[in-house]
Design a protein that fits this description.
Blueprint (H helix, E strand, L loop, with lengths): L1 E6 L23 E6 L8 H6 L1 H15 L9 H20 L9 H28 L1 H6 L6 H4 L1 H22 L11 H25 L3 H15 L6 H5 L7 H4 L3 H14 L6 H25 L3 H4 L1
Antiparallel strand pairs: 1-2
Helix pairs in contact: 2-7, 3-4, 3-7, 4-7, 4-8, 4-9, 4-12, 8-12, 8-13, 12-13
Length: about 300
């Protein structure tokens, strides 16, 4: 948001000459000073709310374009995590013999994949959204934050469809969720905050540095295996020395993914200290990403 403030000439009487006399030369005219807003006002959240219809339109377009001219359409939302969970089940469960918290490995891995897909798809889509909509940015005014935020509704739609398959698997294997399922929206919200926050950073960087689009998949794949998606965090830390175990949870996804899977299948134990760290980390990344995005957005139309 831009704030404008009229400023009048404020010379002292001595600067105007003797009292009662007009200063020599032309009289000073009022002038306008335009300053960028600072603090929370800089995010201009009211404008984002006013453009909510555009946000939903962009989200709807994203879903339609993704599954246009595909034979299976939205079924891919189920097949992708299911196939990945099947591979993890065979490699880590059957071949490597990793534990799965007392549930079939396919269910264990699918629960982790469900949360991971919400994170990775949001990061990937939000990172590329500015470059993908470069024509819109250079021609039309709207709050630029709308673009990365528009990736969230489509992620939630994909998540809801894939969650239905999770329910089917739990029925097939006779797994009933506990009261922890009530906390599932909290974990999902924190995962999305973390992913959008990262996406705000990377999308702004990608406008000036296209290298980001090549670096991001590499980092994402590394993070997949460094996070408890295909295995449990308790198993991972049992394989490292006692004095190094806390470092595993420096990755905020470790706590959030474990909490998500605990809510889904009701197995395992949670370290609430690590989860609190992950929650605070996600919130700070989201806020920091939003402010960094707003700081860099004035250059988007010129550079993109």
């Amino acid at each position: 948001m831009i704030e404008s403030q009229p400023l009048l000439d404020t010379q002292t009487p001595s600067e105007h000459g003797p009292t009662g006399q007009e200063p020599s030369g032309e009289a000073q005219q009022p002038h306008l000073v335009i300053r960028a807003s600072s603090g929370w006002a800089a995010l201009d959240l009211k404008q984002i709310w006013l453009y909510r219809d555009l946000l939903m339109t962009l989200a709807s377009r994203d879903v339609k374009l993704r599954y246009r001219q595909t034979a299976l359409g939205v079924v891919w939302v189920i097949l992708q995590p299911l196939v990945a969970a099947g591979i993890f089940s065979f490699v880590f469960g059957t071949v490597a013999g990793f534990p799965s918290e007392g549930v079939p490995y396919i269910v264990f891995a699918y629960a982790g994949q469900l949360a991971w897909n919400a994170f990775s798809s949001t990061v990937t889509k939000s990172s590329a959204v500015l470059v993908a909509n470069s024509g819109l940015i250079s021609k039309v005014y709207f709050p630029r934050l709308v673009l990365p935020l528009s990736t969230v509704p489509s992620t939630l739609l994909d998540f809801a469809v894939a969650l239905g398959m999770m329910a089917v698997l739990m029925v097939i294997y006779g797994i009933a969720p506990g009261l922890g399922i009530l906390l599932l929206p909290l974990w999902l919200g924190l995962i999305l905050m973390l992913s959008v926050g990262i996406g705000l950073y990377t999308s702004a960087l990608m406008v000036s540095y296209r290298d980001v689009q090549y670096i991001l998949p590499v980092v994402t794949n590394m993070l997949l295996y460094a996070s408890p998606v295909a295995y449990s965090a308790s198993f991972a830390i049992s394989k490292v020395p006692q004095n190094l175990r806390a470092y595993y949870f420096l990755n905020p996804l470790s706590g959030l993914l474990e909490a998500f899977r605990w809510s889904m299948i009701g197995r395992g134990e949670l370290n609430w200290g690590y989860i609190a760290y992950s929650a605070v980390f996600a919130i700070l990344i989201f806020i920091g990403g939003a402010f960094s995005f707003k700081k860099m957005e004035r250059k988007f139309a010129d550079v993109i």
